[in-house]
Amino acid sequence: MGITPQAMLADHRDEIERAAAHLRAGRLVAIPTETVYGLAADASNARAVAEVFQIKARPHFDPLIVHIADRVMIPKLVTDFPPLAETLTRRFWPGPLTLVLPRIPDAVPDIVTAGLDTVALRMPDHPLTLAVLQRTGRPLAAPSANRFGRISPTTAAHVRDELGDRIAMVLDGGPCRTGIESTVVSLAGDRPTLLRPGGTPVEAIEAIIGPLADPEVSAGTAAPASPGMLERHYAPGTPLQLMSHPPTSPPRVEGRLGLLMPQPCRDVDVSVYSQVELLSASGDLTEAATNLFAAMRRLDEAGLTLIIAITAPQSGLGIAINDRLRRAAMR
Questions:
Q1: What is the pTM of this model?
Q2: Of 240, 284, 245, which Cα lies nearest the Cα of 266?
Q3: b or e along 81-100 (b: 16 or more beta carbons within 10 Å of the residue's beta carbon)?
Q4: Is 157 found in the same domain as 282?
Q5: Which ranges in 140-227 belong to alpha helices (H)?
Q6: Is 289 a member of any domain?
Q7: Are residues 165 and 34 in the same domain?
Q8: Are residues 163 and 274 in the same domain?
Q9: Most buried of the four, 41, 82, 104, 200, by CB within 10 Å?
Q10: What is the tens place of the pLDDT at every residue in 41-77?
C-alpha cells in the first residue's frame, strides 16, 4: 500500500512552505504533478514567467498552462466557463485535463498566453502541488521542467539532471503516476476541439460531451493554441525512428541500436538490439504511458546510434503515446 496523501503532506510540510515562499518571491520551483514535473512560476509575475522561457529556451509564441488549486480561481481568469467546461471539470478535475477558455484581459501577463485571447487551465492531481498552490495563493504557470523540446521529466532526479541548480528548488513528490502530459481541449471556439491527446483518454471525454473536432484543424495554425502542439517535441538527442511493428531486418547502421516497445511483440529478435525497453509486459497502456518518458531517457543515455520505437494501439492512452513518439521522431 502506497503512502497516503495526508502522510505525504505531513512528511513534506516544510518543503511545501519553502516552495510557496520561493514562488511568492518570484523564484522558480519544479513541482510534481500526476503527469510530469512542471517548472512553476507565479503566473501573475511576468518577470518570473520570462525566466521560465529563458531557462527552458522555450519560444515565446508557445503558451503555458496555468495551474489552479480550486474552482474559486476560475472566474478570476476566464470570461466564460460554459456548461461543457462545468461538466468536464466535475468529472476530470483534479486530473490530466487542460481546458482552453476565453481569458479575462490582463488576468495574467501576455507572456503566459503568448498574446492569445485564451488561457489554458488545469487543476493538477498531486497533493503536494495542490498544497503549494493553496499556500502560494496564486495560479502557477508550469510547463514541463526540462529544456524545450526534450524528453519530459517524470522524477525529481530527471529535473535535477536537466536543470541542475538553475532553479530555486525541486519539490520531490515521487515518480509521476500518469507519466504523460495532460489532454488539452479547447472550448473557446464553435466546437470542442482536441488540441493535444494526453493523460485523459479521448474516448472518456467524448463519452460525456460527444465527438471532438479534429486536432489537425487547429494544429495547422502558425501560432499554437496550446502547449505541446509543435511538430518536434518530447525528443531524445538520439535519433528515433517510429514503426508500426519491429522490422524483420533492423536498419543497418554503424553503431548500437535500441528498441522501445509499448507492449510485447511476437517474433522480435532482441539480440540485434543493444538495449530494449518494454513499457508494459502485460500490454497495459496506462502502465506504458507511465513508463514512456523514463524509458526514453534511459535509451537516450545508453550511447545508441538509433532508437527504433514501435507504436501502441491507436486507442485509449495509446493515442497519447503515439502522439509523443511521432513528435519525438520528427527531424
A1: 0.93
A2: 245
A3: beeebeebbeebbbbbbbbb
A4: no
A5: 156-163, 202-209, 215-219
A6: yes
A7: yes
A8: no
A9: 41
A10: 999 999 999 999 999 999 999 999 999 999 999 999 9
